[in-house]
Amino acid sequence: MENSSKIFGLRTVIEAINSGKTIDKVFVQKGLRGELFHELESLLRKEGINTSYVPIEKLNRLTNKNHQGVVAQISPIEFHDLDNLVLEVIESGSTPLFLLLDQISDVRNFGAIIRTAECTGVHGIIIQKKGGAPINGDTVKTSAGAVFKVPICKVDHIKDAMFHLQASGIKVIAATEKSEDTLYDVSFKEPCAVIMGSEGKGISPSILKLVDAKAKLPMKGDIGSLNVSVACGAFLYEVIRQRR
Hints:
This protein has helices at about 10-20, 35-45, 55-60, 80-90, 105-120, 135-140, 160-165, 205-210, 230-244; strands at about 5-10, 25-30, 50-55, 70-75, 95-100, 125-130, 150-155, 170-175, 190-195, 215. By secondary structure, the protein is α/β, with parallel strands linked by helices. The chain has two domains: about 5-75, CATH 3.30.1330.30; about 80-244, 3-Layer(aba) Sandwich (Alpha/beta knot), CATH 3.40.1280.
């Protein structure tokens, strides 16, 4: 975590949240007690802020200051409102292309995906408030600054974002090996959103049930899957190929 994007201390973090700072993630010491802690915990739940309960050793590695059991990561970017972004893209006359990330947890994968998204003209990346990788210095570096160029939306639930996209005439296509079709069998020419799953588990089964289409990458080797950022690049460049 970069010093410039990190704050610590119970009261400091409470004030930052109340003042409207964009908090990406809060690390809280396991077993913390007290009135201020309960105030913070209530605030974190109310605002739906991504929170991890960690040993004190983790906090000590994040900062050598008196952190009082709490360290928060301030996001280096401002997040976009999904409803407004979808409307803007549709009204612009462009063929919408969105990217949904279901619990991508590795910061470097996340950054690499953002970089590829910027290079392929993705109109917006949609992530869930909880469970995914934070946007921090490593994300900025790995994305080569693309994190400042591609609109990113944070939503309470990926499912809600899918319903909104579908209601707006944008079909959702899952990148998953649980498909008979390859990405070359599916049309990406119309408005669409590609959804990528987490590194270990892939796309959640409950989400797979709601998609409009599924597609897999043809695999010729013995290894059964690609790194998620590489797979994402293959899908996004197939979109470009089809839309040329």
